[in-house]
Design goal:
six-stranded antiparallel beta sheet, 10 strands, single chain, FMN-binding negative transcriptional regulator, Pnp Oxidase, Chain A, TR_PAI2-type, elongated, Split_barrel_FMN-bd, four-stranded antiparallel beta sheet
């Protein structure tokens, strides 16, 4: 990401919060055959020290990514949106894009078949929670274990991260407030991030 020190997010707890709220991730690997990217849900390991996430990939993505052989980049994309220059002072003509984004780095650990099934169960239960007619892998463990063999689980203990919250911090308080009010109507999650950053 562009080097913008005043947008840096350096607190690991803020990155953990972002992962919790936005678990759809992009995994990028610099493989021997070039760059490979895939998209999967991730779960934060709440009890882990530092930042650790678990996920899975569908076979043969573990081979395409050469998982476990090198560092990967996992991109967590939080709320983002276009910010129109029409919300600025009349002589300010350069629009922008506000966003909250984290780049996570580490070497993935491949999970055992049993650990993978546990992660798949946790992922399912997490996203099914609160839904009417929620489903669980445990409803047909034998069948879901057969299907799980088509996936490979992974754990990424994050060794470093680069995160940004670019939220119009460079604008005057009046313009910042106008942007936030405009986003309240079109992107309340981004407006909330702006207010959180201001406190």
């Amino acid at each position: 990401m562009r080097h913008t020190p005043h947008y840096l997010m350096t607190n690991p707890e803020e990155v953990r919060r972002l992962i919790r709220a936005h678990p759809w991730a992009t995994i990028v690997s610099p493989t021997s055959n070039g760059l490979v990217a895939s998209h999967y849900p991730v779960l934060l390991e709440e009890e882990a020290e530092g930042i650790s996430i678990v996920s899975h990939v569908g076979r043969p993505d573990e081979k395409l990514h050469e998982l476990g052989q090198h560092e990967v980049l996992v991109v967590i994309q939080g709320p983002h949106d276009y910010v129109s220059a029409s919300w600025y002072a009349p002589d300010d003509l350069v629009s922008t894009w506000n966003h909250v984004t984290a780049h996570l780095y580490g070497v993935p650990e491949i999970l055992s078949e049993e650990e993978n099934y546990g992660v798949l169960s946790r992922l399912t239960d997490h996203f099914e929670h609160g839904r009417e007619g929620a489903r669980s892998l445990s409803q047909d463990e034998a069948g879901t274990r057969r299907i799980a063999k088509g996936t490979v689980g992974l754990r990424l203990r994050v060794t470093r991260f680069d995160a940004r919250a670019k939220l119009s911090q460079n604008k005057s308080p009046e313009v910042w407030e106008r942007i936030t009010e405009e986003l309240d109507a079109s992107n309340p999650a981004l407006a909330e991030e702006m207010r959180r950053k201001a406190t």
